[in-house]
Design brief:
heterotrimer, B: 292 residues, mainly alpha, MetI-like fold, 1% strand, C: 482 residues, alpha/beta, D-Maltodextrin-Binding Protein, domain 2, three-stranded antiparallel sheet, 23 helices, 12 strands, 50% helix, 10% strand, globular
Chain lengths: 279, 292, 482
């Protein structure tokens, strides 16, 4: 035992941790801050030499314009597409992951085939998918992109959730079965709650991957279902650069995702509950 | 036991069928199309659908620029992936225990991945601008004099710039995944190890690592595959330049397929990529024991 | 039966044509188009337009106006510049036929026409008697941007050209003039050759650097610098290819001289100018940090503050140099007609006739005159009448010099290189320029580029490309008469 009182040692440790955490956050968030500041800056401030670190005045005009011109609707489009496709990808994907994890369905070959879907270079498949969609009449439709993003999310969900499911001790499921639960009940009552943090982490990024897609949104839409990623590229012209719109649009696009991640945080860390079950 | 065996057989297929159906729906046609087209001569100006043999594949092997782009891609992967993994792991440990405002801090750390990669690229381009960006300004403060580092033009600086931006954008991915995995590790096991006198590294190696390995290895696999397809950051910062110095396989494929409409050749490249990746992924899966 | 509403419309059209000075009995292009489009009332057509600022024209002005006059609905498909060619080609190749009218960059026309993606417009021009109004487009654009071979594929619709903008107050400042004379022994004047430019630029930077002003700044990012290279190379006497052998000759002494000159000039420009794009350069100029620059016509309008109070242009840095800007031809006297836009019809459109009427109306004397004067427009004057239009001349005090410069530029302008698979050649050039900024040796870079150009020519087919090149080189704007 050293001379330093125990709780003091823990305090300094916490302070150090906190400081490091803050430093990391500052580094990671600085570019986002810069973008956020741009959404309020005048062009003279954006292209000031030397660079200006904060806008002189906060005016929400740039945001108002996005709503007025209907550009903000594209954020809504992206939200719909990403949320719905994530929802279905999580459901179908987790079910498939369970099948792979517990029953080894299709063995290694199926698992590799599933992940191979993520190996296809997007550029190479964009045009054939465009042809397929022209034939199906799905170009520039919500349903078309939802199905596409769901399919794209599946390999990721399946592989990630398989890992999380394998983490769950088999005895829990077996004891539930013995207690008389059906297979579906086992999924619902035992597996899903235990895999909660994994479900959350996987869902976040499945959403993000659909949200960030540019190439397919570009190729498969024209006027009806413009996504926010495509809309933002419209602000980069050969003879123009709507930086304030780019920034305001990006901020608008980030807020819903940020709020979702922040509120669902508690599902991320399991902590105490696990100990309770074990005990 | 027979009563349980029967529902099992259908159950496992029911579970997996919607996913397989969707994957086939979207994945099958492009695969067949690419296969067929790669044996033709379909370009921007001609749609020659006669069988052209292996001419596209032969060209693949002669195409120096293609292999260089693969080398560039591997370089970026080999540098960025370990850094993202280790940094993400360290950050996950940092945020594992309670901390005031942890919820907000972790959410803030997600922001780099949520920003559209295109916007991230454009923002970094502005940040790194010598005249109008703050990065060189900050460097100048530390150095005491203006430092005209041209990050998107200078051949010695372009790779550091790209790799830095890529790490900035995707370490939070590793971070969150590993945080979820670490928080699932049974505390009673680590505490037991601690009581037994095990130091941190032993505890990590023998208790924590095996527990998080299934999830961590998938994260590495996914991140690796995505790094292989890296595009937006590079396109925004350098468009593959100077010359073709930072051209990765997806940049090259983009130029061939999208700008110059070398449809057949692009299909051949796609198959090469799939073949290479399948070999590597299968090896990785065996190595990491992921599909036992 | 002509009812009241029709009468009003005809009156409007007649009134419009009357203001143009054409005899009231000769129906104008706009008038004819509107009349003929009546039968398409309720029809919806799509037009592909460059996204962003350019699209404000059809979404805020011409689209609604057309609908008002004809009842036709215009759906604007905004596409980012970099993706326009791709989307047009993909739509054509897939047979989807979703696009009716198109905006195309003239350099793409050989590829698009050869692939069959563009509709031949001669029958329509004849049907709707538009030939005479096509004649009144400024000759350089008319003779070079309209046809591929001998068929009309597009209507030039945007007078893109490079102009040199300079600070009259700096060039006219006696103190600066004296300091310059002392330093270089020459009189300070707007440079007419690149050799002059180097002296003037370096001299001004020396004199004014303490005030934060540089002699010049350019947009040096490869896509833009490529146009500047094409211009300067030809002004100095360079030829892209040997017309007989079709071998690339960009690595001639002229090419090396141009590359070396470009790199040396960066030394007296703002540090980091190699990374300047359109907006960075604009910011530097409008904020008074450079005494000379070269760019497209919008710089001139925005430097005078025209339209910059509009919301659409609120991203343009506020000008600090209004009233101080002079206009000249870039050194060499033959500016690049860089990029530009022309209106075309997709060959797979399901509404060709209706779409044609729309583009005829857009391109007509009267409507185009209004469109190039919109405060938020990116469409630059391209008709003879635009350069002398009273409305335009009144926009700001110096507008007459501006229009005079644009007119002169159009008369002496040089075409973008335009062959089969032009993008492949341009890509090589862009990469060469990025290598130049990276510090490689100009001769080495250009030699490698020439080899790549020859490779591309071989793959496309030497004879095929030779013919296309010959056709291009025969145009008046291909090479300057030095």
């Amino acid at each position: 035992m050293t001379g330093v009182p125990f709780h003091r040692r823990a305090e300094t440790k916490l302070a150090l941790r906190y400081l490091t955490a803050l430093l990391l956050v500052v580094i990671f968030v600085f570019p986002i801050y810069w973008l956020f500041a741009i959404s309020f800056k005048t062009p003279g401030e954006i292209f000031a030499f030397p660079p200006v670190w904060y806008p002189k005045s906060i005016q929400f005009n740039n945001y108002a314009v996005l709503f007025k011109d209907g550009d903000a609707k594209t954020v809504g489009n992206s939200l719909v597409l990403a949320s719905v496709s994530t929802f279905f990808a999580m459901i179908f994907g987790t079910a498939a992951a369970y099948s792979l994890a517990r029953f080894k369905t299709g063995g290694e070959n199926l698992a590799v085939w599933i992940i191979s879907q993520r190996m296809m270079p997007p550029v190479a498949i964009a045009f054939p998918i465009f042809l397929l969609y022209v034939w199906l009449g799905w170009v520039d439709t919500y349903i078309g992109l939802i199905i596409l993003y769901t399919a794209f999310g599946l390999p990721y969900v399946i592989w990630m959730m398989r890992g999380y499911i394998e983490d769950i001790p088999l005895e829990l499921e077996e004891s539930a079965l013995i207690d008389g639960c059906s297979r579906w009940e086992v999924l619902w009552k035992v597996v899903f709650p235990m895999a909660r943090s994994g479900l959350f982490a996987t869902a976040v990024f499945t959403f993000v991957f659909s949200w960030n897609d540019f190439l397919f949104a570009l190729v498969l839409t024209r006027t009806e279902v413009i996504t926010y990623t495509v809309q933002v590229t419209h602000y980069f012209g050969g003879q123009s650069n709507f930086w304030s719109k780019i920034a305001a649009m990006s901020v608008l696009g980030t807020i819903p995702v940020f709020i979702t991640v922040a509120t669902l945080q508690r599902y991320l860390v399991r902590g105490i509950s696990m100990g309770a079950v074990k005990g | 036991m027979a009563a349980i065996v029967h529902p099992d057989r259908n159950f496992k297929y029911w579970l997996i069928s919607p996913a397989i159906f969707l994957l086939l729906l979207i994945g099958l046609f492009p695969l067949i199309f690419s296969l067929v087209v790669s044996f033709m001569r379909v370009t921007m100006l001609e749609t020659d659908t006669s069988f052209a043999g292996f001419v596209n594949f032969v060209q693949l092997f002669r195409d120096g620029r293609l292999w260089q782009s693969l080398a560039h891609t591997v370089l970026i992967m080999v540098v960025a992936l370990p850094i993202e993994l280790l940094l993400g792991l360290a950050m996950a440990y940092l945020f594992l225990d309670r901390m005031p405002g942890r919820q907000i801090l972790v959410s803030l750390l997600m922001l780099p991945t949520i920003i559209s990669p295109i916007v991230a690229g454009a923002t970094w381009r502005l940040l790194l601008d010598n005249r109008y960006g703050p990065i060189n300004q900050i460097i100048g403060w530390f150095a005491g004099h203006p430092v005209p580092a041209l990050w998107t033009v200078n051949p010695t600086l372009v790779y550091p710039a790209i790799i830095f931006c890529e790490i900035w954008q995707w370490t939070p991915f590793m971070f969150l995944i590993l945080l979820a995995a670490l928080s699932n590790v049974d505390r009673s096991l680590t505490e037991a190890a601690e009581i037994d006198g095990a130091r941190f590294w032993r505890s990590f190696r023998y208790v924590v690592l095996p527990a998080i390995f299934p999830v961590m290895s998938v994260a590495i696999l996914i991140r690796g595959l995505d790094l292989f397809r890296i595009f937006d950051i590079i396109w925004a910062l350098t468009t593959g330049g100077p010359g073709t110095m930072t051209e990765t396989i997806s940049v090259y494929t983009y130029v061939q397929g999208f700008k110059q409409f070398e449809t057949s050749y692009t299909a051949a490249i796609a198959f090469l990529v799939i073949a290479l990746l399948t070999v590597v992924v299968t090896w990785a899966i065996r190595r990491m024991g992921l599909a036992k | 039966m002509i009812n009241r509403r029709d009468f009003g419309k005809i009156g409007l059209a007649a009134g419009l044509s009357a203001t143009m000075g054409t005899p009231a009995w000769a129906a104008s292009g706009a008038d004819t188009a509107v009349k003929a489009a009546q039968k398409y009332k309720g029809l919806s057509i799509t037009v592909v337009w460059e996204a962003g600022l350019q699209s404000l024209d059809p979404t805020h002005f011409s689209g609604p106006k057309w609908k008002e006059l004809t009842g036709m609905d215009v759906k604007v498909v905004e596409v980012a510049t970099a993706e326009m060619f791709t989307k047009i080609m993909q739509d054509y190749k897939s047979g989807a036929g979703a696009y009716d009218a198109l905006n195309v960059i003239p350099a793409w026309m050989p590829d698009l026409a050869q692939a069959g993606a563009l509709e031949v417009l001669d029958p329509y021009v004849q049907k709707y008697s538009y030939a005479s109004e096509l004649q009144t487009i400024a000759p350089t654009f008319r003779d070079n941007w309209m046809k591929v071979g001998d068929k009309i594929y597009a209507f030039p619709d945007d007078g893109d050209v490079f102009i040199m903008y300079y600070r009259r107050d700096i060039f006219g400042d006696p103190a600066v003039q004296k300091a310059f004379k002392d330093k270089t022994g020459k009189d300070l004047a707007v440079p007419k050759t690149w050799a002059d430019f180097d002296v003037v630029g370096a001299g001004l930077t020396d004199i004014l650097k303490s005030k934060g002003i540089y002699g010049a700044s350019f947009f040096r990012q490869p896509p833009y610098a490529m146009y500047m290279f094409e211009e300067r190379f030809r002004n100095e006497g360079g030829k892209f290819f040997d017309a007989n052998t079709m071998k690339a000759t960009i690595n001639s002494d002229v090419g090396v001289k141009v590359f070396t000159g470009m790199r040396n000039e960066n030394k007296f420009m703002p540090p980091g100018v190699e990374q300047f794009g359109f907006v960075e350069n604009l910011a530097a100029f409008l904020q008074g940090q450079s005494a000379m620059t070269i760019s497209w016509p919008p710089y001139g309008r925005w430097a005078e503050g025209y339209g910059t109070d509009q919301e659409a242009l609120n991203w343009v840095p506020k000008t600090t140099i209004a009233g101080k800007v002079g206009y000249a031809l870039p050194p060499g006297g033959h500016p690049e007609l860089a990029a530009g836009f022309a209106l075309s019809i997709s060959s797979t459109s399901k509404n060709k006739d209706a779409a044609y009427l729309f583009i005829q109306w857009l391109n007509s004397e009267d409507v185009s005159r209004q469109r190039v004067q919109l405060p938020y427009t990116l469409r630059d004057p391209f008709r003879n009448s635009h350069y002398t239009d009273p409305g335009y001349l009144a926009l700001w005090p110096n507008a007459k010099d501006y229009l005079a410069a644009l007119k002169q530029a159009s008369q002496t302008g040089l075409l973008d290189l335009s062959l089969l698979q032009t993008d492949k050649y341009e890509e090589v050039m862009r990469q060469a320029i990025s290598k130049l900024w990276a510090g490689e040796d100009p001769k080495t870079i250009l030699d490698a580029a020439a080899v790549q150009w020859d490779d591309i020519t071989q793959k496309i087919g030497l004879d095929k490309q030779k013919n296309v090149y010959a056709a291009w080189a025969a145009k008046s704007g291909a090479y300057p008469k030095l």
